Amino acid sequence: MEFPDVAKLNSYYGTPEKIAFREGPGGFPVIALANGSGACEVSLYGGHVLSYRPIGHVPVLFMSKSSLYEVGKPIRGGIPVCWPWFGAHPDNSALPMHGFARVSLWNLAGTDYTPRSTEVSLRLDHSDETLALWPHKFRLTLRVTLEQFLRVELTTRNMDEEAFVFSEALHSYFMVRQIVETTIRGLEGAEYADKTQANGRGVQDGPIVVGEEFDKIYVDTDAECVVEDAALGREITVSKEGSKSTVVWNPWIEKAQRMADFGDDEYKRMVCVETANAFDNKVTLEPGATHSMAVTIRAALKE
Fold it and tell me: Which end of the chain is more exposed for a tag (fewer CB within 10 A), N or C?
């Protein structure tokens, strides 16, 4: 995998105090966006949002200190792009978990800014390598917009001659001060499949409080979620478009210890609330058609 030259990217696309390129961990090219509202960083490897920090806040997104930053392996934390399948491949467990988009090198499609916003667009197209993994022609576009919020939009275009079915997620990892003092609201009454219980079905009773391994796919819901971090005194609002599934995940103690790219105690400081179309909510896309899914993340400190 050959990375683009960061100096050339800065020369062509860099804008003082708005857009800059640098070499990140593992040599991955990283795009830094900034304006009066905050800053974020995006890796071309994986089309991966690495950080988001509004003015006056500690980081909103969690990044594992044990992330490997190796070609062929996903980055642990931030907002990975899970596509064109979510979880293990349904027919071949040897294929990459959560698809190949998060372990592919994306191309820079463009940058833009106004007095209020800064944004970057990335693109991933089918290739001989992707066709060997998933036999469909496609174009993916990832648009990351920094304003008084962070908005990430993933658009899929079917470039094939036949319809295809895919699942997807913007696998957002959120930083919290202490998971046992964190509450997730918005999914009350939603039906879920519990992956820790062989996808057993249930209905969410009240707000979510995590006190053990938690891995549920909430289906047929477009609800806005709020992550209430009592210890930090912050609320993170997660709004979505074009998404009918929400995934909530925390590995807890034993699974965290089994993960080579995740610190043993890091489960205490994170929770994933993922914008998705998965399980019951896979997407069927006709030739030439597009589908967009987006998440908007807002952080607010309680007075």
Answer: C
